[in-house]
Every structure is written in structure tokens, then in C-alpha cells.
């Protein structure tokens, strides 16, 4: 490498969905420096520590570069042919003996941004007759699509803040200063939040005075999972005294009024565990500004109140005329498949669930991740394809999962860095990393604007890694499963990778693949307010304000919370993202595995800042470092998630799940904490 010239190449970051522009200095096959691309049209040089670690991710000391197969209990390097043939023989036997639904697929985050690999995962799922499917949806965000489908008739509706004009912004259980608002694609959050706070108001509801809350106009420290009470009361007050301003037709207005009748300020404040003045001040802000945007994050979608909070957040925006209107929210119209180009189908988000928990519905074909251990134990799932998921840290109930995974007859992973989940695999298949393959930003509706980006590979492939689409299609071909006709047989053919990416474009797409590959970034004008949104809502008869299943959950949870008023509340944990960590990834950035405690909660347990503590409940126990934080709400312990040592999922349960979606509860879960001697 020494003596070779340093070449600067441009790409975009694929660590998270924001996709900041990057400049990467490459010397030979080494990444020597990564920095923000000041010329990038959106991010203008912004990056975070995670994106700047792109080179370290690529050159990880535990990188997997050859296929591995378990022989005599050990994972050993083998040829691609040996690994693929062995998988195919076992897969075919399982399908012939037990049927295709004995094969489960986890659409993990590892291949989530591999556009053509993901498309081949979908092809495999189709070839297996749409059997058990798991995705991160039921780990962190199912309430969003569920409410979009139930209220808006289309789960792909994703309201985004009109940051240019919004004067009242309400963040509930989201910390965009750290997460970059994930499905909004929010680069440089500090500048954006400060700007809104300067011209209007930003309110944050969170049990912790987060980085975002510190930038906000006001902070409300609601009890985890009970934020819904704040929003429900606001909806009631808007219905009673305005500002009621319907921009689109609605269904069920009078039913909603009746449902919230008697939901008083005192009751709502007591359930949320906040002073009543917080609620009246927030209502005054709503009345001052008329329109608003409500953004939620994993702080609510991982709690028992997930669906209710999301629902009431939507109702607040609908009733104030903030949906699809200036000063409120806009809807992403899609790029690859423009939504205005066809009649949006009306889709019920709920789908059949698993065999072991049939009473818990699936959502959009996903099964709850929480059912995987029981499905394996029952013999319903005998083979698992895990496409880049760190199951042992991200799936709930790690102890139950660890006991069940060895019972699989086939446990195939695509993975490029050794980790604790690899230890359970029968086969490990290394696929091209983000810098080794041509790629584009396929998840277009999560982008900040109507645009897509493309990047050529920056460095040669490490070792024997192959394209993910090729790996999956080879398993299918060898197991005699149908492979789509357009899929090439060899990824080493020049142009094969690009041909696979091009196949994801269609005649209606806002540009061709060739145009994108030539210019790397294509942006189209946003229609706002969008006629297609109003047309869709009119066609379905109006926003459904009172979806039956949400009403039922409101009645049961509301009654339980009301009955519990006046009772002592247990210490609960909520889980938290960190700036130098992304879920189970990026351990090497050194984020501390810690728990934040209010000083009085710490004193009551004789815990000092920096102590090693044991957090435990009925499901398990973990060790963490205690940090005393006066910004933490009393009665709540905030656990950093995604760590191996201090794995939050040793405290979650496969049975403590949201009955409407199977979402495992990661927030508002009872816990106790004690200092270790
Ligand atoms: S915000 Fe996301 S896309 Fe931007 S640098 Fe950080 S990890 Fe990468």
C-alpha cells in the first residue's frame, strides 16, 4: 500500500437511512480517511461518528471473508460450492419433509441496505410460499405502519415534518439529535431543531432530558408508555374547543368525541405522571399555532402504549388540518414507484400470525420476532435464513432464543463480521460490504426529500465475499427453487451487479437507473400539498379516526391505567440509543454500556456514579455502569441498548408483547437495580 497514491472518492453513508454524502480517501485497497462531502446537495458536509467509522467497519479485525460451515461442532472455512451445496441439500430435504413453511427468514438490517440482496431475499420468501418472516418491524417500529394502515388505509403513508414552515413541533419518545429521526432522514439535526425553536416552539416528551429535549422549548417527562394520555387529552380538547380544522374528510368524529368524553385533565396528567400544567401549557401552544407536527420514535414504539400514542399523534395532526399542509406534515410520494401514478390500494395492516401465538396478528406479513423461540421449540421452524441480523442482541428474550437456536437443522447467516450470533450458525456466508458493491438508496420514502443516490464500489472485495443476490439465488437454484428469469448466474460477470440494481427500476420510476448511475444523485420536485394524498383520503371515505382494534386497546389499557391510579409504580426501564452506537453494531466506537438513574433513585439504592450495578427482573439480569443523571425522570432507568455486555434483551420477554402487533416491550418494563460489591 505504501507508495500508492491516495485517491479521494465520493459515496454516501449507508450506516443509517440519512445517507449523508461522504468523501473517502482510498490508498490501494485501504480506506485511510472518511469525511463529510461539503458539496453534497443535502448533507453539505455533515456526518456523525458512525458514518466517519465507515473505514473501520470495512477493515474490522473480525471481518469474515470466506464461507464457513459447521463440521464436528466447529465453524471452518470451506469453498462456496461446498457451503451452498450442503445448504441446498438440507433445505430441499426440509421442504420435502415438512413443507416450505418450515423455513423461516429473518430480513435483518445487515442486508436491509443491500438493494439487490434484499430483492433476492423477497424472491426466496415468495419461492417458499410466503412462510414465517421476521423483520426489525416488530423489534422497534411496528406502530407506525399499523396506525398508517388503520387510520389512513395505506401503511406506506409516512407523514414528515414540514421543517421549513412548522411552528410547533412535538417530539414524543424520539431523540433525533442521536437517531437522526430514522425514517425522516434528518441530517444536521441541531441546526434544524434550533431553527424551529427560534421561530416557534419545540416540545419534547421523554422520561429523560435528552440531547433533543435540551434544544427544545419545553420538556415533559412522562412515564414510559403513558405518553398516550397526554395526546388523548389534547385530542379531546381540540375536539371541544379547537383549533378544529379538517383539511381532509374524516370518519367517526362523533364516535371519537364519545370515546374521549370524561377524559379529564387530572386523569390524563395522573396517568402520564406529569403536572397538569404541562398539559394545559401544551394545549395553549397548540391553540397558539393552530398546526403542528408530531414525531414519534422508538421511545414510544417500543412501549405498551405504542399504538395509542401513535394513533393520538395522528389524530392531533388530522384534526388540526396539519396532514399534508404547510406548517404541518408532508407525505413522501415515493421515487421508484411514484404514489401519484396509481390508485393507492387500501391495505389492512393486520395479517395472519404464527402457529404458536395465533391470537397475536402479524403485520404486513411479518410474524412477531418474539415468537421465534417457540416456533423452533414446537418444530414448526426447522431451518432459518438470517440475512444479517444480530439475533442475540436484537431479538427479545435472549435466554429463550439461545436455548432454541441449536435445535434448528439449518441456521444460515449472511454476515461479514464475527459476532455472538455467528456462534449459533450452521453456515456463515460473507457477502459484499457497503464499500465493495454498487448501491443505491432503495428505501426512497425514508429520504429527506424526493431523491435517490447511487455509489460505485470504492474498494476491491475482501477475500472471497460474493454479491448477496448471487449467494441467495445460488441456494435457490441448487435447492430447485424458482429464481426470477432476469437474475444472472454469475456475479463476476461485468455489469451483473448493476443489472440487478437496474431491475429494481420500472418505467414509472422518476428516473432511469442509467441516469442515476451517471449523476449519482437525482432529486425531483416535491408536490406539497400533494393532490394524491387528498385524493386517496377522499376515496377511502376519510381518515378513519376510530379503527376498531385501536379503540378496543384504548378501552382496555385506559381502564387498567385508571384502575392503577394511586398505586405505587415500580421502577421501569426504557431503552436508549447512543451517538457512538447503532443498535448491535459499532462496539469499537466505545459507547459505554450504562444505565442512567435519577439521583434519588440512586441514593435509595446506595448507588454512586460509576458503580457497576446489576439490573434484573423475572427474565434475567445484566451488569452495567451506573450514571447519575438529574435529567432522568424518577422511577425510570434508561438502559443503553445494543450492547453485548449489558444486553437489554436479557430483560425482555417473549410473552410481554403488544397484543395488536406482537411487538416485544423494551420500554416501561419493570426492573430492579442494585450495586454490586
Ligand atoms: S447520520 Fe447516518 S448517514 Fe449520516 S453520517 Fe451518521 S450514520 Fe451516516
Keywords:
677 residues, alpha/beta, N-terminal domain of TfIIb, Rossmann fold, Dimethylsulfoxide Reductase, domain 2, 4 domains, 7-stranded mixed beta sheet, 30 strands, 31% helix, globular, binds iron/sulfur cluster
Can you tell me the CATH superfamily of the largest domain?
Answer: Dimethylsulfoxide Reductase, domain 2
The structure class reads: alpha/beta
How many strand segments?
30
Instruction: Characterize the biggest β-sheet.
Output: 7 strands, mixed
Q: What Rg do the Cα atoms give?
A: 25 Å
Low-pLDDT stretches: none
Q: In percent terms, what proportion of residues is strand?
A: 15-25%
CATH architectural category of the largest domain: 3-Layer(aba) Sandwich
The end-to-end span amounts to 50 Å
Could you characterize what this model shows?
The strands form eight sheets. A seven-stranded mixed β-sheet has the order 5-4-19-18-17-6-7, with helices on one face. A seven-stranded mixed β-sheet has the order 29-24-28-25-27-26-30. By secondary structure, it is an alpha/beta fold. β2 and β3 form a beta hairpin. α4 runs parallel beside α18, α5 runs parallel beside α14 and α9 crosses α12. The longest helix is centred in the first third of the chain and has 19 residues. The site of iron/sulfur cluster (SF4) has 11 residues, from α1.
Amino acid at each position: 500500500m505504501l507508495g500508492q497514491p491516495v485517491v479521494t472518492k465520493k459515496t454516501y453513508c449507508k450506516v443509517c437511512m440519512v445517507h449523508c454524502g461522504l468523501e473517502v480517501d482510498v490508498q490501494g485497497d485501504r480506506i485511510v480517511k472518511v469525511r463529510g462531502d461539503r458539496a453534497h446537495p443535502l448533507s453539505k458536509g455533515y456526518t456523525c461518528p458512525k458514518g466517519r467509522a465507515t473505514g473501520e467497519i470495512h477493515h474490522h479485525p473480525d471481518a469474515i471473508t470466506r464461507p464457513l460451515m459447521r463440521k464436528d461442532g466447529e465453524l471452518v472455512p470451506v469453498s462456496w460450492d461446498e457451503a451452498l451445496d450442503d445448504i441446498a441439500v438440507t433445505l430441499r430435504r426440509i421442504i420435502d419433509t415438512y413443507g416450505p413453511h418450515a423455513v423461516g427468514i429473518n430480513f435483518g438490517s445487515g442486508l436491509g441496505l443491500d438493494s439487490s440482496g434484499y430483492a433476492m431475499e423477497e424472491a426466496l420468501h415468495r419461492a417458499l410460499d410466503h412462510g414465517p418472516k421476521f423483520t426489525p418491524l416488530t423489534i422497534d417500529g411496528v406502530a407506525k405502519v399499523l396506525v398508517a394502515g388503520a387510520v389512513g388505509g395505506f401503511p406506506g403513508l409516512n407523514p414528515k415534518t414540514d421543517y421549513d414552515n412548522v411552528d410547533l413541533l412535538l417530539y414524543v419518545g424520539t431523540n433525533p439529535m442521536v437517531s437522526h429521526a430514522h425514517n425522516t432522514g434528518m441530517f444536521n439535526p441541531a441546526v434544524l431543531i434550533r431553527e424551529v425553536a427560534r421561530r416557534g416552539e419545540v416540545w419534547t416528551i421523554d422520561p429523560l432530558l435528552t440531547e433533543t429535549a435540551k434544544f427544545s422549548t419545553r420538556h415533559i417527562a412522562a412515564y414510559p408508555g403513558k405518553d398516550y394520555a397526554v395526546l388523548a387529552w389534547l385530542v379531546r380538547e381540540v375536539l371541544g374547543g379547537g383549533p378544529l380544522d379538517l383539511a381532509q374528510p374524516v370518519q367517526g368524529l362523533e364516535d371519537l368525541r364519545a370515546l374521549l368524553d370524561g377524559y379529564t385533565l387530572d386523569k390524563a396528567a395522573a396517568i402520564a405522571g406529569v403536572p397538569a400544567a404541562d398539559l394545559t401549557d401544551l394545549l395553549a401552544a397548540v391553540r397558539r399555532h393552530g398546526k403542528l407536527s408530531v414525531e414519534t420514535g422508538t421511545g414510544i414504539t417500543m412501549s405498551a402504549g405504542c399504538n395509542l400514542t401513535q394513533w393520538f399523534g395522528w389524530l392531533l395532526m388530522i384534526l388540526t388540518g396539519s396532514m399534508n399542509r404547510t406548517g404541518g406534515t408532508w407525505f413522501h410520494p415515493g421515487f421508484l414507484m411514484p404514489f401519484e401514478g396509481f390508485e393507492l390500494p387500501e391495505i389492512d395492516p393486520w395479517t395472519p400470525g404464527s402457529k404458536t401465538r395465533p391470537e397475536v396478528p402479524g403485520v404486513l406479513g411479518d410474524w412477531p420476532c418474539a415468537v421465534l423461540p417457540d416456533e423452533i421449540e414446537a418444530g414448526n421452524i426447522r431451518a432459518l435464513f438470517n440475512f444479517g441480523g444480530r439475533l442475540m442482541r436484537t431479538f427479545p428474550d435472549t435466554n429463550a432464543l439461545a436455548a432454541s437456536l441449536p435445535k434448528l437443522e439449518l441456521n444460515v447467516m449472511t454476515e461479514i463480521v464475527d459476532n455472538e450470533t455467528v456462534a449459533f450458525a450452521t453456515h456463515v456466508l460473507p457477502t459484499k460490504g457497503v464499500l465493495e458493491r454498487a448501491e443505491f438508496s432503495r428505501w426512497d420514502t425514508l429520504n429527506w426529500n424526493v431523491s435517490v443516490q447511487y455509489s460505485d464500489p470504492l474498494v476491491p472485495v475482501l477475500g472471497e465475499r460474493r454479491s448477496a443476490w448471487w449467494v441467495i439465488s445460488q441456494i435457490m437454484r441448487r435447492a430447485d427453487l424458482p429464481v426470477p428469469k432476469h437474475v444472472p448466474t454469475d456475479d463476476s460477470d461485468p455489469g451483473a451487479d448493476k443489472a440487478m440494481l437496474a431491475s429494481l427500476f420500472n418505467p414509472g420510476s422518476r428516473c432511469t437507473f442509467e441516469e442515476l448511475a451517471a449523476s449519482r444523485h437525482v432529486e425531483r420536485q416535491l408536490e406539497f400539498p400533494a393532490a394524491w394524498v387528498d385524493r386517496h383520503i377522499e376515496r377511502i371515505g376519510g381518515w378513519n379516526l376510530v379503527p376498531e382494534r385501536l379503540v378496543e386497546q384504548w378501552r382496555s389499557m385506559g381502564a387498567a391505567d385508571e384502575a392503577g391510579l394511586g398505586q405505587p409504580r415500580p421502577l421501569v426501564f426504557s431503552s436508549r440509543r447512543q451517538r457512538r452506537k447503532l443498535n448491535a453494531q459499532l462496539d469499537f466506537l466505545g459507547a459505554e454500556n450504562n444505565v442512567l438513574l435519577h439521583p434519588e433513585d440512586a441514593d435509595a439504592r446506595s448507588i454512586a456514579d460509576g458503580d457497576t450495578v446489576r439490573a434484573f427482573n423475572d427474565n434475567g439480569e445484566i451488569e452495567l455502569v451506573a450514571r447519575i443523571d438529574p435529567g432522568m425522570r424518577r422511577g425510570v432507568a434508561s438502559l443503553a441498548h445494543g450492547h453485548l455486555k449489558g444486553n437489554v434483551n436479557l430483560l425482555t420477554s417473549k410473552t410481554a408483547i403488544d397484543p395488536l402487533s406482537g411487538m416485544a416491550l423494551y420500554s416501561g418494563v419493570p426492573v430492579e437495580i442494585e450495586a454490586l460489591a
